[in-house]
Amino acid sequence: MTEQTNLDLSPQTAPGKSAAETVNPSAFSFASATPEEHELIVRDRRFDRKALVPRWWHSNDAVATAWYNSVSASLPRGEAFFIESLREFREGLPPRLAGEIKAFTAQEINHTREHVAFNRLVADHGYNVESIDQGIKAMLALAEGRPKEFNLAISVALEHFAAVISKQLLTKPEYLDGADPVAADVWRWHATEEIEHKGLMYDVWLHATRDWSNWKRYKTRAMVAALITKKYFGNRIRDAIGLLEQDGYSRRKAKWSLYAFLWWKPGMMRRMFFEWAAILTPGFHPWNQDDRSLIRKFDSPYTDAVMPAE
């Protein structure tokens, strides 16, 4: 667990005056577990669009392929929502957060570009993934007209879910064992940057809700996290089942095969449950778990893994 770093966002005490005399009532400070020296790096990677990635690109397994395809199809529209959520809070941000938002936006734009290309490849194999994108559109439409802080809380929850999945992919190589190398590199690259920027959305949340009581902040964050994760996860299962039905699975077989994949073997959802549940606890911060070693691990052996550009 990393030592907490206090980001002091209040003005300096004027000479000859006490802090109480100097501090503006609207000034504030908040505690962030994000390592002080941590920075976001934009790795603008383009993967081989002409690679002959097979239909069942993950281990020749329709179930594993369907799950990852379902997640990938949900990403472009979701990442656009994250960027828009942050845009509402750009004014008055501390310089560090403002700079990180710029890097975050560049990372997410790159992720969107690569997953759009990946989703096109999936569609070229005959899968209907457009319905998945439309399902994400319908889910995010529920946020329209909500307070901007509520939409930010949705983004916090989904970014945490993404970071926990990403940690699983990078700490347990067996999750991508047997996957097509081009597809596997897309996921490892994306997972690395999800971990790298995992604290940004939450730090902006702390800034945006600085005038809230601790109870209101906790209640909103935990409630939204539970609701939105359940809905997102449920939709990913629904859409993966739909992809398996396109492969000729009966609905019953698709459902049980997918649940066995997620909860038994390799069982990613079972293994990550308690780490995900940390967002429901007081004192949560994504960087309470310091995962910078995973970022360094990727940057070292995979530096030369960039595929040819279009």
From TrEMBL:
<feature type="region of interest" description="Disordered">
    <location>
        <begin position="1"/>
        <end position="21"/>
    </location>
</feature>
<protein>
    <submittedName>
        <fullName>FF domain protein</fullName>
    </submittedName>
</protein>
<dbReference type="InterPro" id="IPR016516">
    <property type="entry name" value="UCP07580"/>
</dbReference>
<dbReference type="Pfam" id="PF10118">
    <property type="entry name" value="Metal_hydrol"/>
</dbReference>
